[in-house]
Specification:
Radius of gyration: 22 Å
Distance between the termini: 24 Å
Structural class: alpha/beta
Shape: globular
Number of helices: 11
């Protein structure tokens, strides 16, 4: 977890006010520019309209494709040959809600001067009273790995789908969420899959080494070869070479080593973290920028009263936090929703749901036996306390609803550890606060 010290919260008001200054009642911006055309952008526009906003909304996208859902790209790589449109998934039609939608007009630069930020594009500048940065993320590709495929966009999925299949060899570099999902899907279709992971266990970055190790047996059971503690030194279109000299022949190589916020186009216009992320407060206002500049979704690190700093990349965050942004931008008062981090994954024959943010220094308690095939959960606790920072459920749907409710309160739940470990009792029975 970062040790960055947050600035004091700024007053909750938009940049424009009825008296033209910094005080007085907030009034809605006359127009809003949303850069990005994915889930976070779509939900932002929908939230503005649901709050009755009748100002002008312009959207700039870059992929040239109508908004679609990204999780199915890996989970359903081979059985969904068309995009999963957001109009069907979340019931929001971006083209109907916004005044202008340019799906193939990427942002090139940002100018934040005066009261109206301006975004440069190949067809000229677009400016508005309020700006929302929702450009998402891009797949991380280490230097020298240009021969590897990635999976982050619909176009990526089309290329990967054409390269894999029964009898074909796929080498996946990275045993994280995406790597595990793709490996399981391709192996189930008859592909020969090898997963290479530099860490000692799968999912170690997300779950830690102890819990990550519990997922390692899933690979062999699914017909996937797993190599851990393996350093990749060369990636070619037809093979991967490891530091110990091992060569892994391949018909395709997939780099699944994470994603980075797609904020390079911002340059120095906004303060960015080392990985390109934008720090935002509880209302999605960019910290260190005018309050009429907002950011949402994968580009952000969001301040949370419950969890501290929440990194982007959470689908549920992109779904829910735009409502917070819209309410504050339009001057609404009242409590600010603080969605808990939530990740769901279907991988190697198992269903996973992670609520909260595990910390490397937390204690881990297991609920159920990972070896008995009946499903289990892992709970992270602040050292020596009953304060629960995260819950992972594995093939245990009865714990999913309980975990979601536990992380719906204003602060982290406090549980009795002994009760929490007892898989025969309901997880909510363990709650002390």
């Amino acid at each position: 977890m970062t040790s960055w010290t947050p600035a004091a919260p700024e007053p909750r008001s938009t940049a424009r006010t009825a008296d033209g200054g910094s005080g007085g009642p907030a009034v809605p911006p006359r127009d809003v520019l949303v850069v990005g055309a994915g889930l976070a952008a779509t939900q932002t526009v929908a939230a503005l309209r649901e709050r009755g906003y009748d100002g002008r909304v312009v959207v700039l996208g870059r992929e040239g494709v109508a908004p679609y859902d990204r999780p199915p790209l890996s989970k359903h790589l081979l059985d969904r040959t068309a995009p999963t449109w957001l109009t069907d998934e979340v019931g929001a039609d971006l083209t109907a809600l916004a005044d202008e939608v340019h799906l193939a007009r990427p942002a090139r630069a940002l100018r934040v001067t005066g009261d109206r930020p301006a975004v440069a594009t190949d067809d000229g500048e677009v400016e508005a009273d309020a700006l929302v940065v929702a450009t998402g993320a891009h797949a991380a590709v280490p230097a020298g790995w240009q021969a590897a495929l990635t999976l982050h966009t619909w176009a990526d999925a089309q290329v990967l789908r054409a390269a894999v299949g029964a009898g074909r060899r796929l080498v996946v570099v990275g045993a994280g969420w995406i790597g595990a999902e793709v490996a399981g899907v391709v192996a189930a279709a008859g592909g020969h899959v090898t997963v290479v992971e530099a860490a000692a266990t799968p999912l170690s970055a997300a779950l830690g080494a102890h819990v990550g190790a519990l997922t390692a047996p899933w690979y062999a059971a699914a017909g996937v070869r797993l190599l851990t503690g393996a350093q990749v030194v060369e990636v070619r279109p037809d093979r991967v070479r490891l530091a110990d000299g091992t060569e892994l022949p391949a018909d395709a190589v997939l780099a699944a080593v994470g994603a980075r916020p797609a904020t390079g186009w911002l340059g120095d216009a906004l303060p960015r973290e080392a990985d390109g992320a934008l720090r935002v407060d509880e209302t999605l206002a960019v910290i260190g920028a005018p309050r009429h500049v907002r950011a949402v979704g994968d580009v952000t690190v969001r301040r949370s009263a419950r969890h501290g700093w929440v990194p982007g990349g959470h689908w549920d965050g992109a779904l829910r936090t735009p409502a917070v942004l819209a309410a504050d931008l339009l001057g609404a008062d009242g409590p600010v929703d603080d969605p808990a981090p939530y990740v769901f994954s279907t991988q190697l024959g198992h269903e996973l749901a992670l609520f909260g943010l595990p910390d490397a220094g937390d204690d881990v308690e297991l609920r159920g036996d990972p070896a008995d095939g009946a499903g289990w959960s892992a709970l992270w606790f602040r050292p020596g306390t009953g304060t629960c920072s995260a819950v992972l459920t594995v093939d245990r749907p009865r714990d999913v609803g309980a975990a979601r409710r536990l992380f719906g309160a204003a602060s982290l739940p406090v549980l009795d550890r002994a009760t929490a470990r007892d898989a025969g009792r309901g997880l909510r029975e363990a709650a002390l606060v």
